Amino acid sequence: MTAAHQKARGLKPNSPRPAKALCSECGLCNTYYIHYVKEACAFLNQQFENLEQQTHGRARDLENWDECYFGVHQQMLAARKTEPIPGAQWTGIVSSIAMAMLESGRVEGVVCVQNSESDRFSPKPVIARSREEILAARVNKPTLSPNLSVLEQVEQSGLKRLLVIGVGCQIQALRAVQDKLGLEKLYVLGTPCVDNVTRAGLQKFLETTSRSPETVIHYEFMQDFRVHFKHSDGSTETVPFFGLKTNQLKDVFAPSCMSCFDYVNGLADLVVGYMGAPFGWQWLVVRNDLGQEMLDLVRDQLETQPVTSAGDRHAAVQQSIPAYDQGITLPMWAAKLVGLVIERIGPKGLEYARFSIDSHFTRNYLYVRRNYPQKLAAHVPAFAKKIVDQYQLPAQ
Q: Is 30 buried (19+), middle (13-18) or exposed (0-12) by CB count in 10 A?
């Protein structure tokens, strides 16, 4: 039996949320777990250190720069499937782990996100209980997603062993209420997340960036400093970072994402992303023994190599601060030239990951300082403040 806990009626869709403009639409407020939102919400109560201690047995060591950047971890490696899953965004490592967890009996259900029947980019959180349902969730949905809206179903269904796939803001809320779910075992498979948008914001991004917004299947900001779009006809389109219409896109990202400092999903057991790996490979961060257990299930399906690091990010990050602030957009010819130069001599591997983290943390720190100054001291985690302090920020 699930231990009794306090509940409250969940909010209806489009009702005002407790976090107001900073709501990331994680889905918690859609459920009777809204009772715990003031403690659980990443944007009402920043509690990384406590939740890292709860999840991993210790908080990250701020004297260790790798942990400062990438969180508590046992190992990092680059990997790709030897036999990719057709239709997967990359090679299908996340889907493979989810299927292996379900089919091995380690879990009875997997919280993941399919797309709605009417729109390829609108998320539909589900509790998958079959291989087919997991495969239907492959490919990222680059919009705010209420993954935790299914938590009531978890408790009501009597599931005892669960895998949840999610991003940082969702996982912080999940960790804060996980002891209310009546589970015997919870596994968390995370993905790094940055710069999410509403569905309308996504449409604006596609229309200002892609040659054919209506045929885009998925896209990613990649290590070669280009946005890669995959189209329904199988073609690939690339656009250099420095050619993005920043002046038109500055306000497209959700305020929650502009205020987030959990790019690397520090509270997951295992994280699968790309930014710390060579182009064409995935970056895996094993944070604890549960993460290692998940990875071990699919290890024989993977080709792996050690992570590497090259270059120096600092000058590029420092230059990006005023460029973003002023909404500078280069002509496409210049953007392509700059992109080629940086691709050759710029940061690679883990140094590219640090470049991306530094660029976003400095931007987000300025956003919080300007828009929510009363929250700044409590909201910015110590590891993020240490990273930001490497750079000279504008006075105002």
A: buried
Do 169 and 135 touch, CB atoms closer than 8 A?
A: no
Cα-flanking dihedrals φ and ψ of residue 220, to 5°? -155, 145
> Which class is domain 20-196+256-309?
alpha beta
Domain coordinates of the chain in residue numbers? Answer: 20-196+256-309
Question: What's the CA gap between 268 and 166, in Å, rounded?
Answer: 8
Task: Note the pLDDT tens digit of each residue in 304-320.
Answer: 999 999 999 998 899 88
Reported as a single tens digit per residue, the pLDDT across 192-228 is: 998 888 888 889 999 999 999 999 988 888 888 888 9
Residue 19 identity (one-letter amino acid): A
Is this model's pTM higher than 0.85 or not? yes
CA dist 280 to 193, 232, 240, Å? 18, 20, 17
Tens of pLDDT, residue by residue over 59-86, are: 999 999 999 999 999 999 999 999 999 9
Residues 6+ apart with CB under 8 A from 274: 90, 192, 220, 222, 223, 281, 282, 283
Residues linked to residue 233 through DSSP beta bridges, in sequence order: none
Write the single-letter amino acid at 229.
F
d(CA 284, CA 307): 9
Q: How many CA atoms lie within 13 A of 11 on its CB side?
A: 18
Q: Within a 10 A sphere around the Cβ of 315, how many other Cβ atoms?
A: 9
Number of H helices, E strands in the chain: 15, 13
Chain CA centroid to CA 139, Å: 13
In eight-state DSSP terms, residue 70 is H
Each as own residue / partner, the long-range contacts of residues 151-156 (CB below 8 Å, 24 or more positions apart, any chain) are: 151/27, 151/28, 151/31, 151/33, 151/177, 151/181, 152/10, 152/31, 152/32, 152/33, 153/127, 154/109, 154/111, 154/127, 154/181, 154/183, 155/2, 155/180, 155/181, 155/182
Place of tokens 């589970």: 183
